[in-house]
């Protein structure tokens, strides 16, 4: 079993149009590195030198990872990760 990652529309050009992809890793950072191996450029759109990019929200099983351990949040087979770009406007 793997970890399912739901991809927002704006990033689907990096996944060949896939709405969801599967990956593996022990932490969120390892998962993103694994995904970047098959979908080059994906990790760079999510992570900068300080951690998760400011305008990217990531949820592990419906919990915001910023309130967990950020990129060091542990993940396991069967988990669901959702990537959502922040929306601004007025």
Automatic annotation (TrEMBL):
Please provide an example of a Pfam family that matches this protein in its UniProt record: ThiS
Q: What InterPro entries does the annotation carry?
A: Beta-grasp_dom_sf, Mopterin_synth/thiamin_S_b, Sulfur_Carrier/Prot_Modifier, ThiS/MoaD-like
The signal sequence is none
Tree of life domain: Bacteria
**Record-linked PANTHER family:** SULFUR CARRIER PROTEIN CYSO, SULFUR CARRIER PROTEIN SLR0821-RELATED
Q: What is this protein called?
A: MoaD/ThiS family protein
**Top-level taxonomy:** Bacteria, Bacillati, Actinomycetota, Actinomycetes, Streptosporangiales
